[in-house]
């Protein structure tokens, strides 16, 4: 074997080794990212999860708003990326506890009885005005001592929460997307899809409750979202009982 041929053979071998090492490194990084994503969402390989569907506000039938359907599609893509399976369940047919399967619950308490139950038991510091005749107060979100009213199409709010039973990290979480309008629910799911890696680094497997603001949805749809505050402590602290007046 002359020197030129030997150099060619060595070059081919070196290229092959480099390609193999690159493939191993990429595979390792991909698998590590997948495991982190699965841990954050509580979705190991081939696990089951629930998508709890609300109904269109004011409608007697299970009619899902267009933006809520978009939210469900985005969540389904996240679940598929974790190599998990999903079951879609109506909000008034989910008669089971939580912690055994990861749950994604979409919609405010006015259209989702499951969400109303979660707010009552998991987030006692949160109230949403669901009275149909309340005018500008409709949909107002109270968290602790603060109240957030919506300006339809201009300034709207949504809660994004990851919660576990009794704060334990060894059980499957429930994710809440509780917005003042259907478009804000989609905004929250899109925010989660875009920022889940950062949220996982910050909160790990713990609980959090974030208040998001959807800006000018009539022009920008669900794309422009601002993080207002981490309201975990306020949302999990029961609201004081109203004072009883006696005549």
From TrEMBL:
Which parts pass through the membrane?
6-29
Q: Which UniProt keywords apply?
A: Membrane, Transmembrane, Transmembrane helix
Superkingdom of origin:
Bacteria
Name by which UniProt lists this protein: Secreted protein
